[in-house]
């Protein structure tokens, strides 16, 4: 099995379900590194749905900013760790630092760390660059950061999938 798997696709494309099924194949215990937080009722509902689908065999860790630190600190504890999702992590970093160069430094640090870990990692990230050019600077900055981050992490990955309408297309590995 792959040591680093990267899964991308649009909203509600089945990315998380594919990631969960790949992680379960590694056996228990399983780690789930959540980058989002329930800022409103709708997001709280999304998080609850994900948690209910995963079940008790998963240990959830919530970390909006320090992915590398949490992954390093939990190396060899789980049979696999699923990170959901990279784009929410990028959002958190961009809104915290307001510095695209610093965000990309964090992405490069994560990409450098991942091959050194013993625990297999599955990264989920949204594909946001296939639509129209956003009208405001922040949205364009985020779209560009997500594209660069996805490219860097997919390059580092052993396996890469893109999800379309619930169907996985394997691009690498």
Automatic annotation (TrEMBL):
<keyword id="KW-0342">GTP-binding</keyword>
<keyword id="KW-0067">ATP-binding</keyword>
<comment type="similarity">
    <text>Belongs to the CobU/CobP family.</text>
</comment>
<dbReference type="Pfam" id="PF02283">
    <property type="entry name" value="CobU"/>
</dbReference>
<dbReference type="InterPro" id="IPR027417">
    <property type="entry name" value="P-loop_NTPase"/>
</dbReference>
<comment type="pathway">
    <text>Cofactor biosynthesis; adenosylcobalamin biosynthesis; adenosylcobalamin from cob(II)yrinate a,c-diamide: step 5/7.</text>
</comment>
<comment type="function">
    <text>Catalyzes ATP-dependent phosphorylation of adenosylcobinamide and addition of GMP to adenosylcobinamide phosphate.</text>
</comment>
<keyword id="KW-0548">Nucleotidyltransferase</keyword>
<dbReference type="GO" id="GO:0043752">
    <property type="term" value="F:adenosylcobinamide kinase activity"/>
</dbReference>
<keyword id="KW-0169">Cobalamin biosynthesis</keyword>
<comment type="pathway">
    <text>Cofactor biosynthesis; adenosylcobalamin biosynthesis; adenosylcobalamin from cob(II)yrinate a,c-diamide: step 6/7.</text>
</comment>
<protein>
    <recommendedName>
        <fullName>Adenosylcobinamide kinase</fullName>
        <ecNumber>2.7.1.156</ecNumber>
        <ecNumber>2.7.7.62</ecNumber>
    </recommendedName>
</protein>
<keyword id="KW-0547">Nucleotide-binding</keyword>
<dbReference type="GO" id="GO:0008820">
    <property type="term" value="F:cobinamide phosphate guanylyltransferase activity"/>
</dbReference>
<dbReference type="InterPro" id="IPR003203">
    <property type="entry name" value="CobU/CobP"/>
</dbReference>
<keyword id="KW-0418">Kinase</keyword>
<keyword id="KW-0808">Transferase</keyword>
